[in-house]
Amino acid sequence: MDFGSKHTLDLTHLDDILSTFTNITQNDLIPILQKIQSSYGYLPKQVLMEMSERTGIAASHIYGVATFYEQFYLQPRGKHTIRCCRGTACHVKGGPEIIEAIKSHLNIEPGQTTEDMKFNFELVACLGTCFLAPVIMIDDDYFGHLTPDKVKEILESYD
């Protein structure tokens, strides 16, 4: 199973992260993984294997935790994350057309990242903004009452 990239990474960030913990136990695993992801942008295999070696936490346990929680990413992520609601209100008001517009414009499927590392595309159960249906969220910004043409315009506005 591949945790991610195979190129050599700077482990200075890992040194800094681990130095903030004393007597590391498995109870520290999630906070350590959160800090690693915050620092590297994802959980690189090389860093996780080095963490396992330095902490004594089995790599299989680290991998199990990293794959169980959706907050963790084992592959590099794009600069911006698009979350497209697939809830009932959005579905009824044109959500499937919005999903198709994103897929078509970015040439990726849900769960993928664009080749230029600009966007990640995720489908979510609900964004809690049914009154804006159909709606997407890019990073922390909501865009509602969408049409396929509006989606293209919105996506092109991001650098």
Task: Provide a short characterization of the protein structure.
The protein is of the alpha+beta class and 159 residues long. It is 42% helix and 11% strand. The longest helix is centred in the N-terminal third of the chain and has 12 residues, at 29-40.
Structure in words:
The chain has 159 residues and is of the alpha+beta class. The protein has two domains: 12-68, no CATH class; 80-156, Glutaredoxin (3-Layer(aba) Sandwich), CATH 3.40.30. The chain has helices at residues 12-19, 29-40, 45-55, 59-68, 88-92, 95-106, 148-156; strands at residues 80-85, 119-124, 136-138, 141-143. A four-stranded mixed beta sheet has the order 2-1-3-4, covered by helices on one side. The longest helix has 12 residues, at 29-40.
Key terms:
42% helix; 4-stranded mixed sheet; elongated; 2 domains; Glutaredoxin; 4 strands; 159 residues
Task: Give the overall form.
Answer: elongated
Q: Please tell me how large the radius of gyration is.
A: 18 Å
Strand share of the residues?
5-15%
Integer count of domains:
2
In which range does the helix fraction lie? 40-55%
> What class would the helix/strand composition place it in?
alpha+beta
CATH homologous superfamily heading of the largest domain: Glutaredoxin
* Contiguous uncertain segments of 5+ residues: 1-6
What is the CATH fold-level name of the largest domain? Glutaredoxin
Quote the average pLDDT.
91
Number of strands: 4
Strand ordering within the main sheet: 2-1-3-4
Largest sheet: 4 strands, mixed
User: Quaternary status of these chains?
Assistant: single chain
**Helical region count?**
7
For the record, the CATH architecture of the largest domain stands as 3-Layer(aba) Sandwich
Can you identify the CATH class of the largest domain? Alpha Beta
Beginning-to-end CA distance, first to last residue: 33 Å
